[in-house]
Specification:
Low-confidence stretches: 1-61
CATH topology of one domain: Rossmann fold
Mean pLDDT: 94
Number of strands: 34
CATH architecture of one domain: 3-Layer(aba) Sandwich
CATH class of one domain: Alpha Beta
Helix content: 25-40%
Structural class: alpha/beta
Shape: globular
Largest sheet: 7 strands, mixed
Radius of gyration: 27 Å
Amino acid sequence: MLIKRTHQHSPRHGSVVESLAGQAGGLDRRSFLRKSGLAGGALAALGSLPVGSVRKADAAMAGPLTAGATIRKNICTHCAVGCTVTAEVLNGVWIGQEPSWDSPINRGSHCAKGASVRELVHSERRLRYPMKLVNGQWTRVSWDTAINEIGDKLQAVREKSGPDSVYWLGSAKMTNEGAYLFRKLGAFWGTNNTDHQARICHSTTVTGVANTWGYGAMTNSYNDIRNAKTQVILGGNPAEAHPVSLQHLLEGKELQKANFIVIDPRLTRTAAHATEYVRMRPGTDIPVLYGMMWHILQNGWEDKEFIRQRVYGFDDIKKEVEKWPPEEVERVTGIPGEQLKRVAKMFATEKPATLIWAMGQTQKTVGTANVRASCIALLMTGNVGKAGAGANIFRGHDNVQGATDVGLDIVTLPFYYGLAEGAWKHWSRVWEVDYDFLKSRFDSKQIMETPGIPLTRWFEAVTLPKDQVAQKDNVKAVFVQGHASNSITRIPESLKGLKALELLVIADPHPTTWASLSVEAGRKDGVYILPVATQFECKGSRVASNRSLQWGEQIVKPIFESKDDLEVIYLMAKKLGFADQMFKKIKVENNLPEAEDVLREMNRGSWSTGYCGQSPERLKAHMKNQAKFDMLSMRAPKDDPEVGGDYYGLPWPCWGSPEVKHPGTPLLYNTNLNVMDGGGTFRPRFGIEREEKLPDGTTRKVSLLADGSYSLGSGIQDGYPEFTLASLKKLGWDTELTEAEMAVINKINPANPDTVSWALDLSGGIQRVALAHGCVPYGNGKARMNAFGLPDPIPVHREPIYTPRVDLVAKYPTLPDAKQFRMPNIGFSVQKAAVEKGIAKQFPLILSSGRLVEYEGGGEETRTNPWLAELQQDMFIEINPADAAERGVKDGGWVWVTGAENNSRAKMKALVTERVGKGVAWMPFHFGGWFAGKDLRGNYPKGTDPIVLGESANTITTYGYDPATGMQEPKVTLCQIAAA
């Protein structure tokens, strides 16, 4: 299928690439294509050399290869590994790039995508100027015209239908500063309908992990996986999705003689490296994990002391695990009992062991429960808070963790403060605006404190009857900045939403499938496209999966008429009338907010998460001094004058103000270190005790605080609650607060300053004093196996909405219909109807989806890159040889794939392979630009169409939403395949 293509797309002449011909040194396109087969091998394997053999650049080697050029560093955002890109710039032109040999993360490695990022900036197919749809034709307009018309239309929608009728969809492609300002824009507009890619990739991870032990993030790091004796990958394919990370996994496998176990429905490129490959039925993660736990408990392999000291709810889990003996696990998952016993023994006894996952676990109606079950398996075996252990969660973009942290989300303000009145008052103090002003921007106080609508269901918020959407009116306008539409499930339904909108604004370097599908939906007007700069034309911070922050320099200024994300946000705020309030503490020059000032504002308000210590100056020092950080521990020598003792990127929590010089936290919940050396405890977020009902009807109170476990050097040698002024007084430590700190605390709550906590104290004094006594500011609690408050406090297996195993639905049904996130979730009714209609017989193949190494996300950016487009030119579906033979499907032949809803169908090529088991099919999700067999190339503004187009996997995906997060279910549904 990878046949060189020289047609089907119109060339662009007079392009930037042509105009720069002869200026660029280094790897050319033809050389890249010759070497690209090694992208996941030789190019990435450069970084898999033993640590001692990796070359460290000295001062003499640090300069540019081209005379007169300057070196600038930025971060690849194609996945969340966080690889540093080293750019050579001459006369304002980006002329060459290399991976950073000094970065402790990528260690001189790039994958194919990372090696070609310079093409993103130079792409001749980028959007060059603002455009709008007029009588079905894309027409050029000025920035002033576009902003004025968009602003007027938004105000008109607001007056008629209220602020919630505008949906603000942001991006993980933004810097922290951009994502933070986008969420702030939504707050000042007066809505919580603000979301981004995390909703569709790892919202279930954040919710599941945070509800287990405190914070919603990776506990360890890619580098630390080298310390594991057992690696279990359940729901991930790092060889293709996070290629550079594989160096850390494989070196750990070799150096530690580690078990490398891959549990996956598909024999992936990662599974090819496994010491044990386990094939499972898609959608059965919880039975797999409970099956492992059954063997662990039967054989006494659990870590009893760890559970006693640091875990709540173990007895509740034991009762659920008892329901999953080997026979039932094999009946549901297809995994033989002896194989799972072997895996369980390695995981529990050959420690430290880590569990690694990505979207294979998360993108399901039970995504939150899957994540919770993974956490419980780690807790049961004591594999948390230790080097080589933990939940190593591979996020999808570098900056999806950061965009989540800074609050670009429907359920919280920045840094997980939530939406309650106290959270709004905290941020009104940080922003120095009156709380009543912010409240007046919303339709009501109640809606101000109510989670918004998930992006997975934006189109239903447009098309459902008004009385089914719990806000003043339906969504009437969507402003999307940096998010693909084809990455959202149920495209046939989204077309209806696109047609019904009054206004659609797309801000992106490319028109994206929002533009092509809006034309396909029949729109003639009411659509604007604004050219936004790529990440390499902006500066700011981004967060990798391991919670490290990295500062990216602006490599070149925005080309054509494109603008920095921050400038677009400022122009909208200015037009909408609240820029002066929104940017009160942020320097703005020529309409561009200063990124460093934005980060400083974030530092002032982010005490709850420990984003308070990573000042711009400290982050820039880390990028400048990358060579000083150890490749394994990621720590700099303590005697270094610039970054002494810091962990690379100051992974959060980085406690206290920048002056405190906290080094960052490389491993979450590690009690073997002092808190000022990166140590920590589990966070008691859900109270300090729990009332439980006993069998005889009486009740008892059970402590949720740690029992005899504490971090090294702690002044309190037992469990303890979060710190407040009152708790400092009780301990006699309040006298250590300065007068200035006490003045701030008294101002926060004049009536009762004792209630002011470490998270609300803008002076940082409460944190400072707690740290001085070796205590973690948030307290020392137990992790929760029983996460009371979630729809399923104990994870429960529930069959997918569209399951091939209708015989299991009665025993393992999905949750009842309920109102969630302002709209009804009717998954139970849909599942029931599917069983009654015999959908599984009509559509007998399980359909799943995933990534390719060549492309990223919705693919618009990477499919426009000629270096990558030549590597993977066709959308395809993998089908097992037996299933193909039954259907007369030939390898490389065209097929129609039909879905279980909306009479959906898509045309693509077949890849007949034993990678997938019988009864299972798999598609990549990066394609777009076709719909139901129709090529939509003509729907793009002239010259901006991607080189490679194809059907979107989400044309075929179906109804299904995780009740705790609104996550969609593209990883398991049903389909049929027929030769075209």
